[in-house]
Every structure is written in C-alpha cells, then in structure tokens.
C-alpha cells in the first residue's frame, strides 16, 4: 500500500486502488481480506525459498488498524462483547493471530522454523474511537503519553539463551536495525556510532542491561517528551485522559468530557508510575532541569522534516490510471 487505512476488502483509498505487487497494481483481489492476502503471499515466499540461504521477511499487516472490518467468522466469536467496535476489533486481533500461526506452520513445513528468529511488535498504542484501548496506561495513539508510545511485542527462537521471561529494559524501535545486522553476521560500518539504535541482542537473549539510557519520544511540533532511566519528562503536550474499555466499565457507560488545553511541564517515574498519574515536576525540579538539558542536546541535532504537502498531481494521475502510484513532479 502506498497510503494507509484503505478498505480491507476492496483495497481502495479515496475511491482509488491502493494494492501493489512490487511496482505493479493488483486488480484481481477485490473481496479478499488484506490480512489473509498478505499472509498467503508470505507463505508463498517461504515455500519458494531455498532453505540453505538466509531469509529476511518483513511483514507489516494492515490489521489491527482502521477501518474496522473483519470476516464474519471471526466477529461472531465475540458476541459476548456488547460494544460493536470492540467486537470487530477483537475479531481482527483473532484473525491476526490465525495469520501468524499459519505463517509459523509454513516455516516448519519449509524446514526454516528451527533456525528462525520471529519478532512480533507494534508501532504505537491503540485509538479508542477505533476500538483500541491502552488501559490502564494514559493516552492513545498520536499522543506522547505511555498509551501512545509504549509498544508490546515478543521474540521467539531457539537461539535465545533465556526464554519465558519479560524484558523491562529500555528498548526503542531504532534498536532493531543494529540488532538484526548483528544476528545476520553483518559487521557494522565504522560510522555506526551515528546510528540511533543499539544492538540489544545481549539484553533480550541473556538479560544483560541495555546500553540505552534514554528514549527520545519527540522534539518537533512544539511538543517534547523524553525518558531517561526511570524518569520521563513531557513538555507542551495535550492533556490526555485514561480511556477505559467499555467491557471493563460497570453499568451505563458515561461519556467523559474531553481533556482540554496543554500541560506545559510534567514529570513521572515511569517504573513506579507507568500510568502517569502522579506529576513529580514540582517535587524534583532538579530532575526537570537535567532532562530539559537532554532535550536541548537532541534539539541541536534536529534535521528539517522531509514531509511535504500533498501534491494534487498525484491525485490527478491516480484517478486517470485507476490506482495510486509514483509520479514525477
């Protein structure tokens, strides 16, 4: 997909097809649910692969993501959930579980499973308006509160030296790149110190403390958030609430007033208070000062955004061709 949030069945976005096989538009998959479509394609890749050579497979499913759509057989399994959005959401999660199960079984069939490291992870928190809740964490997708930035995941493979454990060390998405390079036996280049990520394999596999001491959540757009050790500083952020899923609410669900305004400064001990309920900024002004200094350090290395405004020529060409694709300005 060149865009996102397209129809899971028609693969259309804004009335225009957005499904490609490399650079070629795919026009014969109307009605095929995207989760199943991507899983089946991954299975074909696995079965056609020569097991004597390495394989790297990156599979970003469209689910669980809006629009809320799911095959009927998965939705009906959650009739006990009264809220319609949550019912569909639960079905989408089940469908994702099934797809991952089918892919792992195919790896076993192809003789790859025993020498494969499987990483399942997410990119952000859920959106309540689309059935995704992060309770008891504060906030939602798009926010700098833990409900927006904290992601869950797991790692599976026989090469792990410890299993069945939880890793509570600091890990950031940028750490996957140097970690995967290490696992693939690729020697890091001399300028690897310029990378934002760390090789976290010793942390995941052996329980060695993470080399990472901080996580920069954001410094652009006027808002900032940074985590250093146990402490997290937020600057000029939206005052997000805690969104409790309807099935955990007793009695009639009341509509809460939306949080308004911005919080200029807030400080939390994320280890002791992961739900961000006790602001410590006035209690520890010295910590606020130290973390502000760290934000300024990152600000010095900030690069101009590469994002551009939508080009009307892209829409014009897409309508003419009947599918989204690259264009020349």
Verbal overview:
- This protein is of the alpha+beta class.
- It has 8 helices and 10 strands.
- It has helices at 34-47, 72-75, 84-109, 146-149, 176-183, 201-206, 285-300, 312-321, and strands at 12-13, 16-17, 20-21, 24-25, 118-121, 153-156, 214-218, 224-228, 231-238, 262-269.
- Strands 7-8-9-10 form a 4-stranded antiparallel β-sheet, with helices on one face. It has a two-stranded antiparallel sheet with strand order 1-2. Strands 3-4 form a two-stranded antiparallel ribbon.
- β1 and β2 (16-17) form a beta hairpin.
- The longest helix is centred in the N-terminal third of the chain and has 26 residues, at 84-109.
- The radius of gyration is 22 Å and the shape is globular.
Write the layout of secondary structure elements.
Elements: E1 12-13, E2 16-17, E3 20-21, E4 24-25, H1 34-47, H2 72-75, H3 84-109, E5 118-121, H4 146-149, E6 153-156, H5 176-183, H6 201-206, E7 214-218, E8 224-228, E9 231-238, E10 262-269, H7 285-300, H8 312-321
Antiparallel strand pairs: 1-2, 3-4, 5-6, 7-8, 8-9, 9-10
